[in-house]
Amino acid sequence: MASILLTGGAGYIGSHTYVALTQAGHDVVIIDNFSNAGRGVPGRLARITGAPVTCLEGSVLDAQFLDDVFAKHSFDAVVHFAALKAVGESVEKPLDYIETNGQGLITLLRAMEKASVFRLVFSSSATVYGIPDETPTPETAPRRAINPYGFTKIMGEEVLEQLATNDARWAFGTLRYFNPAGAHSSGLIGEDPGDTPNNLMPYIARVATGDLPQISVFGDDYDTPDGTGVRDYIHVEDLAQGHVLSLDALLRSSQSHLVNLGTGQGYSVLEMLSAYSAACGRDLPYKIAPRRSGDVPIYCAAPEKAKKLLGFEARRTLQDMCSSSWNWVAQRPRGN
Ligand code: UD1
Questions:
Q1: Which of 164, 275, 306, 308 could form a disulfide with 312 if both were Cys (CB 3.0 to 4.6 A apart)?
Q2: Could you identify the atom of ligand 1 that is nearest to the CA of residue 295?
Q3: Cα of 266 to ligand 1 centre, how many Å?
Q4: pLDDT tens for residues 128-154?
Q5: Which entry of 129, 149, 233, 267 is annotated as an active-site residue?
């Protein structure tokens, strides 16, 4: 059993990882500034795990707050989710992204160093591949930033690599997520974007609940089997399990690792729509719209390295992703 600090632990992936870590026997403390998480999440995490949740409100940009948290608790490792993640917003406000994602990471690393905590799992993204030359995409593919969000994830990865290479005390697990989807089997936590969603799965979910009229399919003339964009969707509970395995590996050895977390299986927009329609019991309305700028036809993980290094394998199906999402959105308490 280890003692873990989870930054951004009330958010979508963070909250599922809280449950997975707790159920694996770890002691977990959450910090979150609730900029993109509901205030009701800690209470619902307590219901799922059957134990009180320690959740402290504050920002990773606040060095004094972090020092206080590290002074009160003795951590073995940190899992760092707290960051901004909307591509379009990053283009409008690049400095916000560089500050929160870049400076937030550095401030956290400083606080860790002061407290002699040298193990960190970092939330990276398949976005670091930009427009990849090969798919399925292996970890050896070149990193290319095509927007400020992607730049901040590349920056984070490079900062950690410099530290691990030059200071033997540090070890990092860098996890490149493909497209997270679905919700917890309890129906108590899931993705809950405040505004109109930008990403496909939460958008489909809003159409399924009747909050939005129809889905726009961005392009049906790509070089893919049905002409619509193909992505590697991974169930958020599988993704959460990837963090448990990454942490176990880091606590066992002082070796850093960098892996894709995906399934290796791609689904098209139309396949997603059809699977979600089956889960919610009605045909969801859609229209074909122009391509979205910056989109690639296919994004798919080469998942072998995560299996070899961490024993990670996604187990849940597309049906599991859609039915758990529907189970969550059909009953969720709005805005908390
Ligand atoms: C997007 C980001 C990526 C980020 C990831 C986080 C862009 C260009 N990329 O990935 O950097 O890491 O989210 O999860 O924003 N689609 C529709 N209609 C919609 C929404 C999406 O047809 O209303 C299509 C897209 O064209 C794409 C697929 O659905 O083919 C998935 O889109 P999305 O969920 O936004 O994810 P990504 O673009 O893969």
A1: 306
A2: 8
A3: 13
A4: 999 999 999 999 999 999 999 999 999
A5: 149
